[in-house]
Design a protein that fits this description.
- 26% of the residues lie in helices and 41% in strands.
- By secondary structure, it is an alpha+beta fold.
- The chain has one domain (4-149): 2,3-Dihydroxybiphenyl 1,2-Dioxygenase, domain 1 (Roll).
- An eight-stranded mixed β-sheet has the order 2-3-4-1-5-8-7-6.
- It is globular.
- The two termini are 28 Å apart.
- The relative contact order is 0.20.
- Residues 6-133 form the VOC domain.
- It holds the Pfam family Glyoxalase.
- This is Methylmalonyl-CoA epimerase.
């Protein structure tokens, strides 16, 4: 199987991205890297990228009343939304997952990555975003921060 390389990021669903950024900065001494507004297939979102040690935390706020993040918060409350998992061979991963009988409900292509999302019912209630970075993986957290700062994160 095309294996998972690492946890790329952890995404937290929040009602107020700015307030959550301040909260995680004070609570965990997280470093704010960047905040941006994205148009994804699932709707408009505001995302704050935070560095916590060697890890990236994404604070995600829906900008649409019926947006997927707001639907998640209405159902489960603020908190863990998804794990971002990096692979080197997304097509190989997709082939293996589908061969094992799982469905992939969302595939998306961005200028900097390709990704699929696996259903929470297939992963004990956790949304799994599996992605492959165009141009290869980052070797260090500093490289990852550079990639975040250079994002042109719009769907193609």
């Amino acid at each position: 199987m095309a294996g998972i390389k690492r946890i790329d990021h952890v995404a937290i669903a929040v009602r107020d991205c700015d307030q959550a950024t301040e909260q995680y900065t004070k609570l965990l001494n997280a470093k704010h890297v960047r905040t941006e507004v994205l148009r994804e297939k699932a709707g408009m979102v505001k995302v704050a990228y935070m560095q916590i040690g060697e890890n990236i935390l994404s604070l995600v706020q829906s900008l649409e009343p019926d947006g997927f993040i707001n639907q998640h918060i209405d159902r489960y409350g603020e908190g863990l939304h998804h794990l971002g998992l990096e692979v080197d061979d997304l097509e190989g991963f997709i082939s293996q997952v589908e061969a094992n009988g799982y469905r992939i409900p969302l595939r998306d292509e961005f200028s900097n990555r390709s990704e699929v999302v696996l259903r929470p019912r297939d992963a004990n209630g956790v949304v799994l975003q599996v992605l492959q970075w165009k141009g290869g993986s980052d070797a260090t957290v500093a490289d990852r921060i550079e990639r975040i700062l250079a994002l042109q994160n719009q769907p193609e």
